[in-house]
Amino acid sequence: MAELKGRMSRADNLARLAGQQWDVLIVGGGISGAGVLREATRRGWRAALIEQRDFAWGTSSRSSKLVHGGLRYLKEGQFGLTLHSVRERDRLMREAPDLIEPQSFLFANCSGRKPGRHVFMMGLAIYDRMAKGQRKSRYHGANATRMLAPGIGPADMVGGITYVDAKTDDARLVWRVLAEATNEHGLALNYVSAQSPIFSDAANKKVIGLNVEDVETGTRYEIKAKAVVNATGAWADGLRGAVSGKPMLRPLRGSHLVIPFWRLPVAQAISLIHPTDGRPVFFYPWEGITLVGTTDLDHRDDLQTEAGITKGEVDYLLLAVNDQFPGLAITAKDISATFAGVRPVIDDGSGDPSSAGRDHVVLDEAGMITLTGGKLTTFRLMAEDALALAAPHLGKAFARIDAPVFRPASAMNPRWHPVARFRLSSRYGADAATLAEGAANADFDTIPGTTIMWLELAVAARDEVIVHLDDLLLRRTRLGILLPRGGLDHLNRISEIVRPVLAWTDERWQSEVERYRSIIATYYGLPK
Fold this sequence. Notes:
By secondary structure, this protein is α+β, with helices and mostly antiparallel strands. 33% of the residues lie in helices and 23% in strands. It has helices at residues 10-18, 31-42, 79-95, 117-130, 142-148, 170-183, 236-240, 311-324, 379-394, 418-428, 432-436, 454-463, 469-476, 479-482, 491-502, 506-523, and strands at residues 22-27, 47-51, 66-67, 101-110, 138-141, 157-167, 187-190, 192-199, 207-214, 220-230, 249-260, 269-273, 280-286, 289-293, 297-298, 337-346, 360-365, 368-373. The radius of gyration is 23 Å and the shape is globular. The model is unreliable at 1-6 (pLDDT under 50).
């Protein structure tokens, strides 16, 4: 297979990071940081991004995978947030229709349950109006609702309501945005941690860079930058601590269940209000499985440790599923995987976690620009707000740009199967034809039980800066959550494909496998 032009080794990129002064140094390799890097490079700014773990390691690979307007935020009176989210959702679907796909939702209307038909339809009318008048919501009688979702049967169901949002692969979205930025000479490095700010002097205390460490070798570097953007999400208060002693975040955990599609077959997403606490819960088809989420709880564990689901959350989500499909009798034995992420929610003093605001905050604290809060859907707007604050430190004017985030997807070999072409386009966009060049027919075969092609493993190993096995199986591909046991049954074939490219010895491979087994057992299965 062909190799991307201009690909540099990790050592080369570390040397590049340390060898110049940057206009903007971004900390955080989730969707917020990726968005800032993309918006900075499109303006011709010298921009670099570092991430202490792997790209999308935190919230941005553990979200509900929804690109949505936030219908529930209307109830909280957050009309501006909903409007911006709806418009950005539609923009992303236009720009990358292969990666951000429309998703139909069905809400069963039950007598005596809130919000009730008329309130819900009124909210959807506003929602549709925000989407420039595109009417996508409909009311259906009970029989039609059962036809749309065979087996649905919550108590006292009298009808159903359908509406449309969108879904994506959140980790691939991050990678696509990073690829656009690096195509315009941005630099992105994983496993590089920010240690402490560099100040101009003791009196002024303006941040002019960061002391960073290569996590893999322990080597430290002084990186100078005219502005530093702290886009570390739920971890933002940690980096802010050196310039401001005022924490502002309330980390909230959202946990999910993965259930085989054959056990919970839904043709569209099921939206419901949880019968015990009135919170919205969804379950929907995604990448060949059914995804159930999410919870919304204060996360008090160490943020440097991966988040994991609790038994109480498992029971809570199962109750929601069985409320809608009582005949299926889904139990914990049907769960093939779980995952949990931590949301960066601004602490507004609200007692109820679900009532806390979901808008983003941007602060300039002595040259450190902190961007946190917000939603996956609005990453572009959030990035522009951060750069507007950074621009004066660079001595540059700032203007908002209405250009696409993504380059058009590349034309591919017409002899490749249309399904394969769509899959390649969604994963690699404008680089799809180059990355798949020279692939053999067998490379396009899908891994049993998934829609992932073996080719994707080879591309990731060669071109997507894999440092550890979990980078490959949990984020560049999603085998770790789509297959039982994290895909461990396919390790022999995976080894044959990636080890020659990564140049991992037998000892290194065994070390990576043990590391991966531990991660899957501890954080992606049922709680012990």
